[in-house]
Automatic annotation (TrEMBL):
<keyword id="KW-0472">Membrane</keyword>
<dbReference type="InterPro" id="IPR006904">
    <property type="entry name" value="DUF716"/>
</dbReference>
<dbReference type="Pfam" id="PF04819">
    <property type="entry name" value="DUF716"/>
</dbReference>
<feature type="transmembrane region" description="Helical">
    <location>
        <begin position="120"/>
        <end position="140"/>
    </location>
</feature>
<protein>
    <submittedName>
        <fullName>Uncharacterized protein</fullName>
    </submittedName>
</protein>
<feature type="transmembrane region" description="Helical">
    <location>
        <begin position="242"/>
        <end position="266"/>
    </location>
</feature>
<keyword id="KW-0812">Transmembrane</keyword>
<dbReference type="GO" id="GO:0016020">
    <property type="term" value="C:membrane"/>
</dbReference>
<comment type="similarity">
    <text>Belongs to the TMEM45 family.</text>
</comment>
<feature type="transmembrane region" description="Helical">
    <location>
        <begin position="91"/>
        <end position="113"/>
    </location>
</feature>
<keyword id="KW-1133">Transmembrane helix</keyword>
<feature type="transmembrane region" description="Helical">
    <location>
        <begin position="58"/>
        <end position="79"/>
    </location>
</feature>
Length: 313
């Protein structure tokens, strides 16, 4: 049960961070398409708001990373219920995950200090480059875990999670070189949401009987540390992998729909309308009145010129 609660917690944390990043990045882009650039974090309430509220996103990220770090240390000390003892491979993989999470924690604290004080002036592109390295390490860790897992289902889940981390790494690297590339900035937030969906799917597939594919089952007495869910027949394993692939495609579709919904909602909120595929600001009353006055003046001058030419003739 504790493993399922942790997966739900991870899913909620990733999806909230990703959705918030997506909304803020889209808002900045639509308000100022030429001047907007990617940011490692977005201040809540603007740059002149309350200090606690301004860095709320970073505070929540630090809290979630601390919880994840402690969880990985505790999991590393578990004894494997299947092998009746602590396995070195499992312990080392958990410690490696803890080290990657701790690195993210240090990077987040450094980002907080860089923005709140003058003692650590680090530009945004450096943070994106460092984040790309850490996401690549997370991808490497997930790939290693998938290669040594006893459970076929958990191996598949870890493999997909690693690929999403590789996507996040690539997007951070792109943003470190091209900070004004909006599609990469928005995709980074979407990759967090996708990782959150997959964390939830991992918890449901491994620890909830109703979501375990047909032909697979949880081993009696296994707490979900290693190989807790097994597929006895090859046909059952292939069917379970195919189902997970289908679920992943569905989650990708949900993420794309989420992006369209956020983009359209933010566009309406900031007063942007579409015209031939591009977006332009809606005219305000003052601009409309000025345009009308200009048109009337032009028409009046045109009539006067025609009258003068008729008189001279």
């Amino acid at each position: 049960m504790s493993a399922l609660i942790y997966q739900i917690f991870s899913s909620a944390a990733l999806m909230s961070q990703g959705l918030y990043h997506l909304i803020c990045a889209t808002t900045n882009h639509l308000k100022s398409p030429r001047d907007s650039a990617a940011k490692p974090f977005h201040a809540v309430g603007g740059h002149h708001g309350n200090r606690l509220l301004r860095y709320l996103q970073l505070y929540i990220a630090i809290l979630c990373l601390i919880v994840a770090f402690i969880h990985q240390l505790v999991v590393a000390s578990y004894s494997d219920p299947l092998l009746l003892g602590s396995t070195p491979v499992h312990a080392f993989l958990s410690l490696q995950s803890a080290a990657v999470i701790f690195s993210f924690l240090v990077l987040t604290v450094a980002l907080l200090l860089s923005d709140s004080t003058a003692s650590l002036p680090v530009p945004a592109d450096i943070f994106f480059a460092l984040a790309a390295v850490l996401f690549f390490l997370q991808y490497s860790n997930s790939s290693s875990a998938a290669a040594v897992q006893i459970s076929d289902l958990q191996s598949k889940l870890d493999s997909v999670s690693g690929r999403i981390s590789a996507l996040s790494s690539s997007l951070c690297l792109i943003l470190s070189c091209f900070p004004k590339l909006f599609i990469a900035d928005a995709s980074l937030g979407l990759s967090f949401c996708l990782q959150g969906f997959w964390a939830l799917q991992t918890g449901l597939t491994l620890y909830v009987d109703a979501f375990i594919p047909e032909g697979c089952h949880r081993l009696l007495g296994a707490g979900g540390v290693e190989g807790s869910t097994k597929c006895e027949l090859d046909d059952s394993k292939l069917r379970a992998v195919a189902i997970l692939d289908l679920v992943f495609v569905v989650y990708v579709f949900f993420v794309l729909v989420m992006f369209l919904a956020v983009y359209c909602g933010v566009a309406r909120a900031v007063g942007i309308r579409s015209r031939f595929g591009s977006y332009e600001a809606l005219p305000i009353a003052g601009n409309a009145a000025s345009a009308t006055a200009t048109a009337v003046a032009v028409d009046s001058n045109h009539i006067q010129m025609k009258a003068m030419s008729g008189t001279q003739a």
